[in-house]
Amino acid sequence: MTSKRVLAPGVTEQEGSYLAELIVSKGYQVFGHVRRLRSPNVESLSAVHDRIQIIRL
Q1: Residues facing residue 55 across a β-bridge
Q2: Distances in whole angstroms, Cα of residue 7 to Cα of each of 21, 39, 48, 50
Q3: Which end of the chain is more exposed for a tag (fewer CB within 10 A), N or C?
Q4: What pLDDT shows up at residue 30?
């Protein structure tokens, strides 16, 4: 069985974090895209931070 995966852009922004929470709740594996920053602000992802993978481009 193949797991469902989603690349969610801008997960540290308000809309992106809501999208990530929704997608995780539906059982998807979420990869969150963030801009290259020294330390991206992940406070908005506190509810799902341990269940998504952050990708820095």
Answers
A1: 33
A2: 13, 20, 15, 16
A3: N
A4: 92
